[in-house]
Specification:
Length: 378
């Protein structure tokens, strides 16, 4: 098995392990209330007055980092994520959360965070150290799919971005609102995603992405997830999704988007839907529920976009810099020169500073160009 396929299988399993941890933390109300911790001012997303991290976030990030380092030691230092691994318990004792070499050691560490709740710490440690099979992931992965397909990506040229729980506010609040006309979830647990993306250090472009929706369906008092993946290589792209040429003129947005941009899009016949979660918004574009996701602000980060960006590239789409597209779109190749890249930026923030446009079909960009107008300045 080629290394990149081995890595894909590992990331799929890690994303499902992450989903299991997210579901386990969400099932116990008293535990869940204990796990929420407000972020420091340095860590907050500037768009929100209050921002939170949860132990689930930290556990997932460190679990994925640990699993990748176990299989690919050369990638261990190239795994970056949103969260710090410092957490405090209700007694204000600060603990550095990490995955230990054995389940018992991890349990003992977590019990310090959980105020000596050994039973709950043990349950979480079991999920962290449990071996996941590809058959546990929905939809089921065909392990023989790549036997006759060549994927040539240099593992040593990869960096990895993780967002352990994207849309933390929806994970905490779980306030489900659905747009009945489009079946898009405006808020709620379905907007929560685990995002893992790999990019080439040599050019910054994403090449492998996994997006897991831990809370996809609710049956028999249990949540089940759904997982999506994509690989973009010079030889051929592969994805769990199929590209669709059907356009519906739906654009998903943040509720904080610039009113002038909303007006221009509406005037050109686009239906605008305000949806939670950057990962979920990009996913709606990938699966064809929306034609594009537009964000003019710098409120997303590389961990939000790297994984789903790779999936869009595997389908012939991508994510471009909003500012470059609207101000400089007479110069350069839109699908190449304006793509977001992942190996540059302010090390302390890693913001997609120019905003973004996520699209599945390149033809959508021409419609957006006409709607927004050349040299749009904000």
């Amino acid at each position: 098995m080629k290394d990149v396929i081995k890595l894909l299988h590992l990331l799929l399993k890690s994303s499902e392990k992450a989903a299991n941890i997210a579901r386990a933390c969400r099932q116990n109300d008293s535990l869940f209330r204990l796990l929420i911790q407000e972020k420091s001012d340095d860590e907050k997303n500037p768009r929100f007055f209050r921002d939170f991290k949860t132990l689930a976030d930290v556990l997932i990030q460190e679990t994925i980092r640990h699993d990748i380092g176990g299989e690919f030691p050369e990638l261990a230092q190239m795994v970056k994520g949103e969260e710090t691994n410092v957490f405090s318990n209700t007694l204000d004792k600060t603990i550095v959360v990490e995955v230990c070499s054995t389940c018992d050691e991890t349990k003992n560490l977590l019990s310090q965070v959980l105020d000596d709740d050994i039973e709950t710490a043990g349950l979480l440690a079991m999920e962290i150290h449990r071996d996941i099979e590809l058959t546990e992931i929905s939809p089921v992965i065909d392990i023989n799919y790549f036997d006759n397909h060549n994927v040539d990506i240099d593992i040593n040229d990869l960096g990895i971005w993780i967002d352990p729980i994207d849309s933390t506010a929806d994970y905490i609040n779980a306030n489900t609102i659905i747009d009945e006309a489009t079946d898009l979830h405006l808020s709620g647990l379905k907007c929560v995603t685990v995002l893992i993306g790999a990019y080439l250090k040599s050019n910054g472009l994403p090449v492998l992405g996994v997006v897991n929706q831990p809370f996809f369906t609710y049956e028999n008092s249990q949540w089940r997830g759904n997982c999506y993946w994509g690989i973009h290589s010079p030889e051929k792209s592969h994805s769990s999704l199929e590209n669709s040429l059907v356009e519906n003129k739906i654009v998903v947005l943040s509720r904080y988007e610039d009113p002038n941009i909303k007006a221009k899009l509406s005037n050109c016949g686009f239906k605008l839907i305000e949806v939670a979660g950057a990962g979920y918004k990009i996913l709606t574009v990938a699966i064809g529920q929306a034609d594009a996701y537009i964000l003019s602000k710098k409120s997303t980060y590389k961990w939000d976009t790297c994984g789903p960006h790779a999936i869009l590239r595997s389908l012939g789409g991508g994510i471009i810099d909003f500012k470059k597209f609207t101000v400089n779109n007479e110069h350069g190749d839109t699908q190449n020169d304006f793509q977001l890249i992942y190996n540059e930026g302010d090390e302390s923030k890693h913001s997609n500073i120019g905003g973004l446009i996520a699209y599945r079909n390149p033809e959508t960009l021409e419609l957006l160009r006409q709607s927004l107008g050349l040299s749009t300045k904000l």
